[in-house]
Amino acid sequence: MLLLGIDVGTSSIKVSIVDAATQDILASVQYPESESGITSLQPGWAEQSPDMWWQHVQQAILKAHATRKYDPSAITAIGIGYQMHGLVLVDKQQHVLRDSIIWCDSRAVNIGNAAFAAIGQEKCLSHLLNSPGNFTASKLAWVKVHEPELYERVDQVLLPGDYIAMKFSGQTGTTVSALSEGIFWDFAEQELSKDVFAHYGFDTALIPPIRKVFEPHGLVSNEVATKLGLRPGIPVSYKAGDQLNNALSLNVLQPGEIAATAGTSGVIYSVSDILTYDPQSRVNTFAHVNHSALQQRLGVLLCINGTGILNNWVRNMNGAQLDYREMNLAAAAIRPGSDGLFILPFGNGAERMLNNAIIGAHVVNIDFNKHGTAHMFRAAQEGIAFSFRYGLDIMRSNGLQPSVIRAGRANLFLSDVFTEAFVNTTGVPVELYACDGSVGAALGAGIGAGIYSDEKEAFIHMKKLQVVEPSDTKRYDTLYRKWENLLQEKLVHSNS
After folding, report:
1. Residue 78 main-chain phi, psi, to 5 deg
2. DSSP character string of 47-76
3. Sheet holding 298-304, edge to edge
C-alpha cells in the first residue's frame, strides 16, 4: 500500500509517495520549480489564487507519477498539509469567490485588535487562547465590511487544506484544529466561539461539518481519479496546517516535544497538555493534530514571517546567479558576525511576536569597502537565527525550557551557517531528520485511514541524521545582543 502526501506551501506544492509498510519515500517532487508569487495589491496585503493551488497540486501529482517509481493504482490514502490561516470563500456551487487572503496578509490587524478589546482580553485568552489578531476570522470580517456583496454570496468558509480536500472529493469539511487556527473555536466551551461569531456578526452555517484530523474527509471523485491516474473512492484521510503537520512529520506529538521549521516563514512549535497562552498573544496556541476533548494536546506556535523569504530575496537581489547550496558555501567563508553587517528580517507583513508591528526589513552597517554578497548571505541567515532567539525567549518567559529541538533537514536547515547560528544563539541542540511536510502528510493519511494502528507505528522507521550541539554560544550571544538593540530601536521608532 502506498500513501500520497501533499504539502500546499506558499512557494510551491510538494508531493511525496511513501510505502506504508517501510515508510520509504518512493518519489518526492515539487511544482512549480520556480517559487509561486504573492499578489500584493496594497502595502501589507498578500493573496494567492486557490485555483492556482489546485492546478499545481494536480501537476505535482502527475509529475510524481512520471517518475515511474511506483504504481499509482497502489495509492490507498491521501494526506494534506497546508499553509495556515488562509481564507478561502466558496459559493453554493463550490466556486471560489476571490483570491485567498493568506497567512502573511496584515489588513485585518486593526479589526482583530478591536475584537480583542470588545470581547475582552481575559475572555479571549482564556477561551480562544489567542487574540483574534490577524487570523482567519478577522480576515473574514474584513471581507464582510469591505466586500459586502461578495460576502452575501459566501456559502462556506474554508481553510486552504479544506479547499484542496473539497477539490478531490466534492465534499466540504473542517476540523477543530483548523477552526482554532482561524480563531473560530472556544477551547473552554469546546464549541464554535459564540463571542467571535456574535462580535463579527457571522452565521455559524458558514462553517462546514467538523471532522477529526485523522479520519476520511471525503473520497476521491471519479472525475479527479481519471484525470490524475488514481483509484476512485480512496480517502483523503488527513489534513492539518503546515506547522502542525511538520511537527507530526517529526513525531512531535507529546507534551514537551518541540519542532522547528525554517521555510518561507520560521516556526518553533511546542506541544503542551494545558490550555496555555501568552498574555500579549505574541505566540499562539492551537489544537494539535492529536487534540481531543478527552486528551488535550495544544501546539504553542512562534511564527516569524520573514525567514526563507528573506534568503530568497537576498539571492534574487544578487542576480539569482547562485543556487542555495552555493550561497551557503559563500556565507560559510565569512566569519560569524558578517564583519559588522546585520539584517532585521521583518519585511513580510505584521509580525505577531513583535505585537503585530510592521517595521520592515533593515540592512544595517553596510560598508562599501568591505561588505560583498557573501556578507549579505551570512548576515541574512544570522538575522533569521537571531529572530528565532528573540521569539524563543518569549516562549521561555511563558515557561518553555527546551532541551532539544527537532527539525527536518530541509530549507534553511540545509545550511551549516544557519544551523550553527541557530543552535549557538538559542543554546539548544538540534536533531535533524530526513523528513518534510509532504512525507508527514502521507504518514498522517496512513493514520487516518487506519493503515497504522496508532501514531507510534507510523514512525517506527524514523531516522535521525545528525545532532548539532552548541559550541560557540558566548560569541553568538554577543552578536545577538547587538542585533537585539537594533531591533529595539526600530520598534521604538515604529511606535513613535
Report:
1. -125, 135
2. EE-HHHHHHHHHHHHHHHHHT-SS-GGGEE
3. 284-287, 298-304, 266-272, 258-262, 405-408, 430-433, 464-468
Q: Any bridge partners for residue 156, and if so which?
A: 90
CA dihedral 151, 155, 160, 162 (to 10 degrees): 160
C-alpha dihedral, 321 to 29 to 47 to 191, nearest 10°: -140
Single-letter code of the amino acid located at 212: K
In Å, what is the CA distance from 350 to each residue of 85, 214, 404, 440?
Answer: 14, 32, 29, 29
Distances (CA, A) of 226 to 72, 93, 296: 11, 21, 40
Query: What is the model's pLDDT at position 496?
Result: 65
Which grid cell is 200?
Answer: 463579527
pLDDT of amino acid 356? 87
Three-class SS of residue 272? Answer: strand
Q: Which residue reads 551557517 in cell numbers? A: 417
Q: Do 195 and 122 touch, CB atoms closer than 8 A?
A: no
**Are β-strands 13-19 and 2-8 bridged in parallel, bridged antiparallel, or unpaired?**
antiparallel
pLDDT digits over 286-304, tens only? 999 999 989 999 999 999 9
Residue 393, C-alpha cell as written in the block: 525567549
Cα distance between residue 455 and residue 153, in whole Å = 40
Largest CA distance in the chain: 64
Q: Do residues 381 and 408 lie in contact, with contact meaning Cβ atoms separated by under 8 Å?
A: no
Grid coordinates belonging to 75: 495509492
Q: Which residues contact 378 (CB under 8 A, 6 or more apart)?
A: 331, 332, 334, 338, 341, 417
Rounded CA gap, 434 and 415, in Å? 15
Single-letter code of the amino acid located at 396: R
DSSP letters, 162-197, are HHHHHHHHS---EEHHHHHHTT-EETTTTEE-HHHH
Predicted local distance difference test score (pLDDT) of residue 146: 98
* DSSP-assigned letter for residue 209: P
Among 162-166, 312-316, 476-480, 482-486, the minimum mean pLDDT is found in 312-316
Find where cell 488527513 sits.
238
DSSP output for 443-469? HHHHHHTTSSSSHHHHTTT--EEEEE-
Distance (Å, whole) CA 467 – CA 441: 24
- Show Cβ contacts of residue 192 under 8 Å, excluding neighbours closer than 6 positions: 179, 184, 185, 186, 204, 207
- Give the rounded distance of the alpha carbon of 338 from its chain centre: 29
Q: Report the C-alpha gap between 124 and 195 in whole angstroms.
A: 9
Q: What is the pTM of this model?
A: 0.91
Question: Comparing C-alpha atoms, which of 411, 319, 310 is closest to residue 372?
Answer: 319
CB 261 within 8 A of CB 411: yes
What is the per-residue DSSP string for 312-378? HHHHHHTTT-S-HHHHHHHHHTSPTTGGG-EEE---SS-BGGGTTB----EEE---TTT--HHHHHH
